[in-house]
Each structure stands twice: as structure tokens, then as C-alpha cells.
Amino acid sequence: MNIGEIAKRAGVARSTVSYVISGKRTVSDEIRRRVLAVIEELDYRPNAAARALKEGRTRTLGLVIPPASQRLTDMQLGFVASVVEAAAHADLDVLLSPSGGDHERSFERVITGRRVDGVILMEIRLEDDRVTRLRQAGLPFVTIGHTADAGDVWWIDVDYATLIARCVHHLADLGHRHLAFVNRSAELVAAGYGPGHRALAGFGAAVAERGLTGVDICCPDEAAGGEACVERLLDAHADVTGIVTINEAALPGIQRALQHAGLAVPRDFSIAGVAGRHWAEDFRPPLTAADVPALEMGDQAVRLLLERIATPEAPPRHVLHAPPISLRASTGPAPFR
Amino acid sequence: MNIGEIAKRAGVARSTVSYVISGKRTVSDEIRRRVLAVIEELDYRPNAAARALKEGRTRTLGLVIPPASQRLTDMQLGFVASVVEAAAHADLDVLLSPSGGDHERSFERVITGRRVDGVILMEIRLEDDRVTRLRQAGLPFVTIGHTADAGDVWWIDVDYATLIARCVHHLADLGHRHLAFVNRSAELVAAGYGPGHRALAGFGAAVAERGLTGVDICCPDEAAGGEACVERLLDAHADVTGIVTINEAALPGIQRALQHAGLAVPRDFSIAGVAGRHWAEDFRPPLTAADVPALEMGDQAVRLLLERIATPEAPPRHVLHAPPISLRASTGPAPFR
DNA sequence: TTGTATGCGTTATCAC
DNA sequence: GTGATAACGCATACAA
Q1: Do B149 and B227 fall within a single domain?
Q2: At residue A274, what are phi and psi to the nearest 5 degrees?
Q3: Are the beta carbons of B223 and A95 separated by less than 8 Å?
Q4: Which residues form the HTH lacI-type domain (chains A, B) (predicted)?
Q5: Residue A227 and residue B327: Cα distance in Å, rounded?
Q6: A252 touches chain B (CB under 8 A)
Q7: Checking CA distances to B135, which of B27, B200, B211, B312 falls within 20 to 30 Å?
């Protein structure tokens, strides 16, 4: 079933069918009706490969996700969901590529061979080979997160340093003097995961500015790890009265550890951080946290990418999100000890 | 950058370059080396669209996921992850398509226009338009889950009826006489979501067989909903001593409600079900449950699809998984009341 | 062992 | 307002 078949049955030239479909030149009403009727009858759809070959674009975006073997966080999932949604809205398809581990071939396949018109990259590290590779491939791309030297790339990110600093200031205002920062997993941080490093820097700066003492600790990205981490933390630093965190997946475990230690939140202990809305609201009591606007960010990433594809020479654009901290119920005045 | 350019620089015919790449006929060592050197130097990769047009296949699979707006469950995420992984392993790309809601266009785009060689469909309902549509489109597809009339389609599913029945028998053996079944969300069940209906049927049959009393209740797929649901349940049916569930996302809420009601698990109350391993292990105490082998199933779905593509006339294949129930710590003898 | 020629299904340029 | 035709980049049957 191809455009020639439609043309033959409608008794017109192939080009006429093409123009009926694209509307790029005027076609008499009668012929258009006849062609459309045949298209309808045979349920004809243009062949995507032929069109891509001729037009030089695929109407497809590549989305490079973290290796799926390690569970995606809620936030990452939100990005994927919103990117797919926004792409669909722009009549674009999304080609998924896991990266990292032994998935180099998949990544290479997606970015070479003109398979996609552009790429959205997630889970960026301060130094990121994939960014280097995309730069050299000359394929338009936008990153969610940004490398250390991202002046020339288009990106969109959450301002972890600022958000974590705000959490520290909030707790300091409440009288807390000894805080802990619960980071993402040690492997991730060691690999140069941007949010981990930037949030830690923000924590350090704010703690210093307010003259507090602060300890930081890496924590596996899951409940059991969070529980163990906080147990150790409470053990080693009995004076800590508040936690600041960006590790949403560890929250259920953190909660269990505090409960187990007989610490009531927020009476005996406060906690605040950056987390997907869902995690924050599921915390008991609901978590005072900056809600990452993952849905909005995915949408924005697609818009930026389309802009970049449309105007390759435009100067790079960066967007840094610093959503307000939603005051919920997990922070309160520092306890007397 | 195309094959002709490589040919010119290497001083050979285009077909020779093509054969060097595909290896489909022997090429003298010297010429092959020369060609490969040029390919390497220019970092040439065959154009995917041209290849797809010529070969009549795209080396791409379509993966139709539930509308991403509603959070994907862990299990669904496991399917996506393993499908992408298995596809990458077979050097195939995965085109993602959200379905349901206002995403019909995306779905249509993926299945028409020969954009993919085959489709994997998730989150199947007993009556499912998408299955009908794919049947009529004549595109090879495999479903994870199965419709009521799935004799002629290739599918792979979890045997919810059997697994839930096993949970009931397990609890009955422990002396429980009054059980409750916590289903997925009312909307999902009303929409004809297969697992919900089949699990309920299995529950009803097993309860009848053992002469127990059973109540069933639909429950939103999230923690807060689970908490509210179980509160109502305990209120209305004080004699219930055990819950059987397929609603993994509600588990944290169920746990909170039981705790809040002062019921210790498993001393005062037992709970068992079907859940992703992660949810089961995060439950306190760890949940006695059938661990859905999501990773294995995604892999299998890809294998089945490739088989179906390779042999279009082969009789349909069905795989029903009934993994054993992992005995953990959430079930115990019925309490005296 | 290598080269030549053709067609996959579109879109767009040119001629009418 | 419409039709014929030349690419797009590749794979392969056929010729040498």
C-alpha cells in the first residue's frame, strides 16, 4: 500500500496525492475529495522511512535514560512521562535508549544513522562522556541536568545548591544548630553525579554561613539503605536535630529509623529536602520540601530541543529551576535536649 | 555523508562498501581494509531510514505503555526496563507510545506508517480496543496481559487467579476464616482491567472452596488510598483477620492503617499477595507474596515478538506465569478474637 | 572478486 | 491546477 496505489485508484498523479496530504499546494475540491476517499477506504498512511529519507528528518526524538536495571526514581519517571507526553503533543515519537553499563551500542545506534532529530539526555554527571559524544556527533541535544562545563550546551536543571541551602536556612531559623545532609548513593556521587555535588556544596555553604555544624552522608537510593544510614547517623551524631536530603527513595527508610529511635517528627526531629511531590506527601508527617516540577521540566526540555533543532545557530539556553519550598509538617522548632 | 562518499574515497563501487559492511559476500582483504579505514575516518554510519526503506523493516519495536500521567507501578516499570534491555540486546530500538486518554494519535502513529516491526502492548483489559486495532492493522504484536478472547493473539501474563487462590489457601491453612481482597483502583476494575477481574475470581473461588467468608474492595493505587481503604475495611468488617492483595502501590498505606489500628503483623493480622519484589521486601514485616518476574517477562515478550515476526504463520503462543509464593514474615496463624 | 543498475515510497522541482 | 520525474541512501540481482 503506497502513494502510487492511491494515485492509480483515484486516477491522479502520485504528486497530487502527496499534495492532498501535505496541503502544500492547492488541489481542486473534486480531486481532493476523490483522493481522500481512496485514502480512507484503503486506510493508507505514508511510509515513515520513505518520508524520513526524503525529508531528512525522522520526526522522532531520542530519550537517553539511566540504565533501567537500577530502579528509576519517581522524579526520573516523571521526566520520562512528561517528555513522552510533550513529544506526542508535537506529533513526535520517542525512541528510548538506556545508557551506561553495557548499553553503549544502544546509545550509538540511536545517535548515529540519523535515527532521531534530536536527543534529550537525563541523569547528567559533572563530566559526562555522552555529552562529549553528542557534541562531536553534531546532533542537537538538550540535557536535564548539566555538566561542569555546560556553557555551550542547552540544558535545564534543578538548582539543588539553592534549594538545599534554603532548607538549611529554614531549619536554622527554627533554632536547629546541628544538621545532617543525606546525599544520594556513594557510587553516584563518586561517579560525579551533579545534583549530589551541587547539593552538598549548597549545604556546606549555608551551614557555614549560619555558623552551624553539619555532617553529610551518602545513602543508597532505597528504603532499607535509608534506614541503616539514619541509624548510623543518630548513633554517631547524637546532637543532630535535623536532616536535609535529596534522596527521595530513602525517605521511607529514614522515617522508619526515626520512628524506631523514638524520635517524633517534627517535635523531636525535623526533616526537609528536595523530592518528587509524591514522596513528600507520602512521608509521615508530610515532608516540607521543594517539589521538583518534573512534569513541567520534561515539557520544557522538549520545547527547548525543538527550538534548538529549528535554529541551530541560536545561542545556548539554560533554565535553572528553584521551586519554592512547600511548608508541610515535617519541620518544627529545634527541641531542647 | 553517505555510502557513495565512502566508495569514492576508497576508490571502489558503492556496492562494495555495502558488502564490506554487511559481510554478505567476500571482499578481498586489501579492499576491505581500505574501505573500513575510510569508514572509520569519516565515522560513517548507514542511514537508518534508507536502510529501512530498502529492507522493509525498521529494526525497531513499539512499546505501548499506560498513560504516563498516572504513575507507572513498579511492575510496569520493570516491564519497560526489561523490554528495552532485551531489545537492545537484539540490536533493536524501542519506540515508546503512551496510550489511552488523548494519546490515540501517538498510538496510531506508531502502528501505522510501518514505523515499527512489531509491538508490545502492556496493561491489557478484558476488552481492549488496541488489541482490536493491532489485529486489523496486521502488525505483529505480543501482549503482556491478555484479553478475554485472546486465543489467536500471542501473550504472556501472570496467573493472578491461581496466585491469589494460593494466598487464600495459605491463610486458610493458618486458620483464618474471614478474609478481604484488596483490588486495584475502582476505575481500573470498571474499565475491565484483566488482573483485577481474574484475581477477584480466584479469590471468590478459593474462599468458597474453603468455606471462608470473603469481602472484596477496590482501592486507589497509592499509599493514601490504601490507608483509607483498610481503615474502612477494619471498621466495617471487624472479623477480618487477613488481607490478600494485588495492589502493590497501596501497600505502604495498608501497613500504616494496620499499625494505626494497633494490629501487629503477623500476630494480630496477616497479609499476602502478588507484588513486585521491591514492594514486598519494603513492607514491614516483609510481605509473603508471589514475586512477579517482571524482568524475565519483558525479556520473554521480546523473544516471543521476534519469533512471531520471523514466523507469521506459526500458531499463537501463550505463557502464563505462576511464580511460587515467597514465604516471608507477614502471615501467621489466625489470632484468637 | 568487483562493478552496474534498479527499486524501495516519498517529496519537490519542473514543465504543461 | 495537474502530471511526469528526479532525487533521498541503501541493498541486491545481475553482469563482468
Answers
A1: no
A2: -120, 125
A3: no
A4: 1-55
A5: 23
A6: yes
A7: B200
